[in-house]
């Protein structure tokens, strides 16, 4: 909008005031303002009577009421459009919940979901337990495609070969019963049952262990895979409880034609068509590899050639079938049969043109003298890709796919709306949908039911630039594989659309704190909270810190110096919507991870300049959500800009964690203030311009806000006081001391001057100390404090702490003091969520 048009629009909205000039920088999006009435006191959710009230200071109350009397007030909130258009309209980029804007996602306590659980399982008494839980999950595909699943859970001695013999018998009994059920129908005579998928994986209380693909369920194979995976898990996570899961999926195929088919080739075509019933997310048909392998054996090819002997390539079907398999052209031959091509012409492509499964016919190469060869090849090429769907690998690369290539990725239907796909997020850039991958085309996980998130970018204007910017960040983060950063699996471009495949999260942090109650301030819960805060800070440190790259590093998105150089970056869009939660066990112990790096960037510095003046690379562009911008938003922004935004997230989560339901919603409302630069506009920053700065900029609007000319908003300082008062009532030192120290650290991150904020490295060191103290106190004390109106959570038994102190020769009364005198390597960490390389560096 032109400058004079903007001024006119503002003047019409507020006819009583002067015509201000918009200040440099991002302009908030205009929205209908809140009702012209003061917000309810803290502790009162909308429409509910509060149980905990904190009176406002008189000056703050009058200020909050005064700015709400402005008519047609427009508010910039955390979920509003970011400064750089276009931006996604939904915050749930990778969350499996339907997208929702922030105003509708802020709910009262009555609409909150059942509280999640923070549970610390008791460690195993021995590093090598005698028995372990085993879950056997068997799925059979019906002839109509409907799966039938059964599950069996029992305990077994995992080192005893006899246990695996019993397990084999359990599997064999169910497979034999399924076969008998099939042959009861005469139409199923000639049906053979085969294994479609098999995996053996170890699942721990906090970690997912190694897994193996099992192609045979004989007792010796099960024993080898299970013991190998269990030993690998115990090596990485000693004393952690675990269970063994064996997943088997069986399907069936007809290999003996009935009289109704008439011909063997017609039966093969019918079986191929039945296995191609599920198209991928682009509505392309494809034959999964496991079904294809059943239909491309030498015996099936021999039967087809015997039924229709070729005229030009000899009359020995067995010799021809063996040579086709030896040349690696069995899939190409079956594809020709599926298109009803004559056997002579199919053999001509294999023996005459030397085509095979890795060297397929190409379009536009019509130079063959054989009659009808070129025409038949054109027809074949339209359907040939269906037999050669790609394999999905966790390579972190970007691939250029041809127009007709097939990715074996299927949409997940939305059961609530009946739509063919389940959208996790949608915006002007494209959309994010929930997908699944055919198990025979990937080895990403041992769970065949695992789902993923597929993010799509259109290749138009700024959208393509957004994809390149995000992938440039992801490509480097993929090499780090930080446990608190969401890294992608792979990426590709096809038909003008850019795709990025991610693991699917349970939900994002905004949805979590809006829809779930706090678990309570027990020792285990406080340790969990500090562990997540520490993980996010460590993930941010891995982005901020200097990392050396060698000249041999390949980077497909940007051109890098061929000499050794250092790389460091920033996120610049940290907010609850961009922090995803992953639950290893549904409903238990969610893990926070940073995501959505579309606003971030990595910078390179030659190694020769590393000892020169270290000035952090600055950015003048704004692409994030304005609510969490620091006071330096109208100036060049550096890495401390991320520290401010992360502190905002910490503060909101602490309010949710420590105060009764309703306070977080109230905090959002109290933080809204009218902009001193544009009449009729409001924002919900954590800071405000000081009166001197606001007066200086109000006349001309051209004076940029200096970082020192700002201060925290009254709502922020009020909630610091409210939190400290609430924690002072806590009889447990975990909540009183550690959460109090956390508030001190957050306040340091809210330093108006960016240079005075702690670096990500210092932030990690401080949080590491708090986390270690919380974990130790949670282990040694049984006392548990409940949040008013919330659940109490879970804590460890005091007997565990007593036994531990007795074994180490320490009295339980001074065990905590002795602990803090030990070195980090001597501490017995009871919550080993992150690898040691990320905990102490």
TrEMBL record:
Q: Name one Pfam family in it.
A: Pkinase
* Residue positions binding ATP: 455
- PROSITE patterns referenced in this protein's UniProt entry, alphabetically: PROTEIN_KINASE_ATP, PROTEIN_KINASE_DOM
Q: Compositional bias of type Basic and acidic residues: which residue ranges?
A: 45-55
| Classification via InterPro entries | Kinase-like_dom_sf, Prot_kinase_dom, Protein_kinase_ATP_BS
Report biased composition (Pro residues) as residue ranges.
Answer: 17-41
Q: Which GO terms describe its molecular function?
A: ATP binding; protein serine/threonine kinase activity
Q: Which domain of life is it from?
A: Eukaryota
Q: Where is this region: Disordered?
A: 1-118, 784-841
- Stretches with biased composition (Polar residues): 59-77
Report keywords, A-Z.
ATP-binding, Kinase, Nucleotide-binding, Transferase
Q: Where is the Protein kinase domain?
A: 418-770
Protein name, please?
A: CMGC protein kinase
Name the species this protein comes from: Capronia epimyces CBS 606.96
